[in-house]
Amino acid sequence: MSDYLAGRQQLTLKTESTLEAVLTSGQKVQFDSPATLMLSRANKLRAQRKGDIENQEFYYDGKTLTLFNPKDNLYATTAAPPTLDEMFDFAREKLDVIAPGTDLLYNNGAE
Q1: What is the C-alpha separation between 94 and 76, in angstroms, rounded?
Q2: Contact 49/37 with Cβ under 8 angstroms?
Q3: Local structure of residue 43 (DSSP, 8 states)
């Protein structure tokens, strides 16, 4: 599957993740986080995550990475590496930020 996705020049993905928290009472609470990603290789990405806990948008154009929080009307922009794979690593390692679904989008599978 990752080889197939890596071969697509453009794609749109919709994902849904669930975080389960166990309260001290033993009750379980689930938080849903649906996301939509639009990718255009070699270096364009737009991702939106809007769920129970998070509301974030990610924009990458091959030069800059912008993170936007619509709820608080806050954004941050930084220079970013020139390829998607390098940007995913940079965001994770330097910014502690993981765009939704990135493990599916590396050129050679999840790195």
Answers
A1: 14
A2: no
A3: T
The Cα–Cα gap between 58 and 40 comes to: 14
Number of H helices, E strands in the chain: 2, 6
Element (H, E) at 2: helix 2-6
Kindly give the pairing relationship between strand 28-40 and strand 64-69: unpaired
In this structure, are strands 44-50 and 55-60 parallel, antiparallel, or unpaired? antiparallel
**CB within 8 A of 71, min separation 6: which ones?**
55
Nearest to 55 by CA among 85, 27, 37, 35: 35
Claim: this prediction has a pTM higher than 0.85? no
Averaged pLDDT of the chain? 88
The per-residue pLDDT for range 47-79, each reduced to its tens digit, is 998 887 788 999 999 999 999 999 899 999 999
